[in-house]
Amino acid sequence: MCMGRRSIKAREPSSPVHAPHPANSIDDDLSSAFQSLSVHSVPGKATTSTQHIQAIPTPLPTPPPSNPSFPPSKIPTFPRSQPPKCRRCGWIPKYRNTVLPSNPNGNADRPYYICVKCKENSANSSPNGRTKTSRQRDKPGWISWDDNIGIHRKNSPCFCGYASRQDRAGVDSYYPGGGFWTCALGACDYLSYREDGLTIREAQEKGFDSYDDGFEPWLL
Fold this sequence. Notes:
single chain, four-stranded antiparallel beta sheet, three-stranded antiparallel beta sheet, 2 helices
C-alpha cells in the first residue's frame, strides 16, 4: 500500500539512550505497529510535532499481577533527547515522522522513527518492494514510537531489561487488533503476542500457543 509520510527533523542530541543489544535475533517474527501506517513527510523541527503526542490514559488499568514493578530508571520515557539507532544496521534517522489523522489503527498523530536504509534495502531486494513473514506482513525499517503510550511500570521486560511497550497489531495484519509487547526503545528484538509476555520461541518451548487470542491491549 502506498504511503506518504511527514518527516520532522529530530532535535539536537543532549543525552544518548543506551540499551544493550540482544544475543538472539527473531527478525523473521517481528511485526510492529508500522503495519498499515498512513503518513507523509515534511522537514521541520522535532519540537513542532510534540503537540501531537498523546498522554498515557489515567488512571491506568492494572496489568497482570504476576509482573513485578520496574524502578523508574528502567521505565523508558519519551520523547527522546536524540534520534535512536537502528538495531539492524546502525543507521541514525535524521527525521522524526508523524502518523496522519486518517490512520485506521488508532495511531493518528503519533510520532515515530523508521530506518530509511533498511526500508529501501528491503524494497530493492524484494519482489514488488514487499516482504512477508509466515505469519504477517512485515514493514521493514521500523524502529519505535516516540511517545509514552503503552508503557507501564508492570509491563513485561524486554531483552534490554526495561519495561516493554504494549501495542496493537494493524487491521491488515495476521493478528488484527490483537495486543503484543515490544521493546519500547526499539533497541532489541523482544516481541510477544501473549499477555503473559512469553516470546514465540518461549511459548513453543513450553508447548503453549504463540498467539494469545484473548490479549486485548488495555493501555492504548
